[in-house]
Amino acid sequence: MNRAALRVSLLLLLQLPLLLLLLPVPGGASSESDNDQEHGGENASHSPEKDREHWDSDYPDCGGTMQSPINIDTARTIFSPDLRPIQLSGYSLPANERLVLKNNGHTVVLELPESLAITGGYAQQYRAAQLHLHWGSWLEPGSEHTVNGRRFAAEIHVVHYNTKYDSFNEAMVRPDGLAVLGAFLEVGPSENPYYHEILEHLHKIQGVGQEVLVPGFNIAGLLPANLKLYFHYNGSLTTPPCYQTVKWTIFNQTMLLSHDQMSLLVRSLRTDDSDLLQNNFRPVQNLHGRQVLASFQATQPLVKHTPGHSTSFHAGDVLAVLFGVLFAVTALAFLLYIYKHRSQNARLDSPTKSKVIYTAASTENTA
Ligand SMILES: *[C@@H]1O[C@H](CO)[C@@H](O)[C@H](O)[C@H]1NC(C)=O
Ligand SMILES: *[C@@H]1O[C@H](CO)[C@@H](O)[C@H](O)[C@H]1NC(C)=O
Ligand SMILES: *[C@@H]1O[C@H](CO)[C@@H](O)[C@H](O)[C@H]1NC(C)=O
Ligand SMILES: [Zn+2]
User: Which of 46, 147, 277, 348 is most buried, taking the most CB atoms under 10 A from its CB?
Assistant: First the structure.
């Protein structure tokens, strides 16, 4: 056996375990996200409120084809460069302006003055009406929307109505009547000072119908700093009467609350039956062919917004490059081997011919 062949076989042998090691990695990464989806599905199937099944007999829209919330499958979103950043105006309120904070039996609602408005990102202008939250329990997450099957700890909805209508009640029955800004809440390392402005008052409104006046603050602080990255779709109110009149914006950046703040949220308010008010989210609804737009290229992983995933994407990139290099080396060595093997065979086939050629060449060179 010649040396070149030996080298190639050795190289291949050395790479074999490496290849075996590398190959399962992409599979491992995807099965991780499959698990996430299974968890999301599992948790979603625990229907939080028993009467949800009967909503559409009293409110026909609840059985419609443009219902909310939905699962946002990022791979199926449509990148729309004309979705401009959401612009908020009048969101910073002075402390001497008092706002009503209320337990309505379904959620905590903060009533907002009409001076707050969305002035950019939508084709029309929308005035704020109220904001409220959806949450799970101490064990389970409770956002309404999910992203790639993943449910987040909680979700904020800031509800607005089109300025071309005189009131919220008039707007909510019109196809272009409402705009809701939604953002996901997750547990982070530190206390969120903006959410503190709401959470510190919850113990005063434990009973249904109770309300308290809270000092104004910068309401925009309850929403992500990045108002450029979002998903957009046509949907509905997520509680009866489920009117299909909401242009939804779901931000890609999430809000972080401390662990203590999150547990305050899920353990303070009570329902009519004086049970804890928990799991006040509606299950995700069928898309029925609706499109979900994205203001950014959501099909590509956004490393800075998914710190949990960024490392695996980096590792994936490195492995891909390594794999590519190893493949190139193998291919090159193989070609080299074939080339050498062929020229050797050629020489063996016609020893006299090659001798003649070599002599001729050498004489020419010395001349
Ligand atoms: C679903 O709930 C279980 C607890 O019942 C929890 O351990 C799991 O993390 C939840 N799934 C997700 C996607 O958060
Ligand atoms: C929402 O509905 C309006 C009116 O029918 C339509 O023009 C718009 O394209 C829809 N938006 C999306 C994201 O499908
Ligand atoms: C944000 O977008 C990235 C990229 O599509 C996606 O992986 C991530 O799940 C999104 N997160 C949220 C909260 O929308
Ligand atoms: Zn809501």
Answer: 277
Q: Per residue in 39-85, pLDDT tens?
A: 333 333 333 455 676 788 889 999 999 999 999 999 999 999 999 99
From the list 39, 237, 45, 62, the residue with the least C-alpha distance to 148 is: 39
**Domain 31-313: homologous superfamily in CATH:** Alpha carbonic anhydrase (3.10.200.10)
Candidate of 230, 302, 304 to mutate for ligand 3, largest count of ligand atoms within 8 Å of Cβ: 302
- Return the domain boundaries, the chain: 1-28+315-367, 31-313
By most ligand atoms within 8 Å of CB, the mutation choice from 70, 234, 290 for ligand 2 is: 234
Ligand with the closest atom to the CA of 147:
3
Tell me the per-residue pLDDT of 290-308, one tens digit each, with 9 for 90 and over: 999 999 999 866 555 544 4
Q: What is the pLDDT of residues 108-156, one digit of tens each?
A: 999 999 999 999 999 999 999 999 999 999 989 999 999 999 999 999 9
